[in-house]
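Subject: sequence -> structure tokens, single chain

Hey, anyone have a minute? Need the predicted structure for the following. Not urgent.
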Amino acid sequence: MDLKNIQLTNFKRAYFVGIGGIGMSALARYFKSLGWEVCGYDKTETALTKALQTEGIQIHFEDLGQAIPEQFQQKESTLVIYTPAIPKNHGELNFFQNNSFTLLKRAQVLGLLTHSSKGLGVAGTHGKTTTSSLLAHMLNESALKCNAFLGGIASNFNSNLLTSSTSDYTVIEADEFDRSFLQLSPFASIITSTDADHLDIYGDASVFLEGFQMYADLIHEDGFLLQRHGLNLKSKANSYTYAVNDETAVFHGANLSFRNGFFYFDFHSPSGVLTDLEFGLPGIHNTENAIACIAMCQLLGLSEAEIRFGLKTFKGVKRRFEFQVRTENLIYIDDYAHHPTEINALVSSVKMMYPNKKIYGVFQPHLFSRTRDFFEGFVVELSKLDEAIVLPIYPAREEPIPGITSDGIVEQLTCKVKMLMLPEEAINYFKTKSDGVVLTIGAGDIDRIVEPLKNTLISK
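Reply:
Had a minute. Here:
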């Protein structure tokens, strides 16, 4: 479908097939904010779908087939948005396809929105949700303001959507899965990393990297690219590098310290040094993400005062280095890390912050294919824990792959204590723990044990 022929102003209703996803729900909220009627299907009820319902969005959890609500059967005024995760034999999706409705993937809709505003993309295998949320918060607290479509629930505004009636800028988390980010037309972009992932889609690491180069090629020549030092992507726009503890990068951070629960660092740029910046989100990797955001904010014209305030007041993103329990003896952090590089960043930061505490990790592998592709990396990183608990693999859209199991990971771990457990067993295991750092790690449904595990730990 040629997107050039589609005008969003021609529609007044949006129907979502798979409305409960983090990216889909942001679009649902956006169209609701425009005054559109919004309705949708999802497979299961979640806290996010409940939140959407309280905001006036109709949601159902069974495939209605052709029995779509009557007002959404008017194809001239109804835009249908679907996620690639929906099976091809889904009744509602087939109804819309067979009756020539305008059907767009989530990424295509985001692409249309970047045509009508200055899109600020945040791409990368790791860190894009935290980075895009921080960037959106910093811009929102400045005179510039912004719109934002995020891949997580930002704690500052308790949403994955931010709207502004005055700003020309839209922050968009540019997702490489299914090559979605190639639908965008970014004015400027941050690229945090290009470590291979989604090899079930791309095939191999070289093709994956080509995808990122194609994305970099989309950046407007009047805009700019901020890429982590060492990525070496080309762009017709001005390109700058950033890093932490690397003076060869154009923008870099130095003198990191952890004091009274906050990170502090200096920011070096061609225009000078900002000293002793206070950052509300711990972690070495998060500090590097912050450096990228500061650089973009400087290039967009934010003042030093605006930058300092935005950094200091950022509260983070749900499931990204999110503290659940923080007492003198016991710390519990929940994190979305689902790639060996992300686990390395998480554990390294925790060891820097709590060098004398024992670290317990509960990890749920996400996808059979990712577990197969990065098996050795998972073994290396999880072995750095003092005690590792591995849950069964979360399959998501996949069928099992013979020989790829959580048992196999546990067998190869070299840490002193290693166990395979079901979620309920993992919760019970911590009833006797009263000291150390507990981590829940993964991108599947491990978030379901966060609240009961938190309650178990604080019941002491």
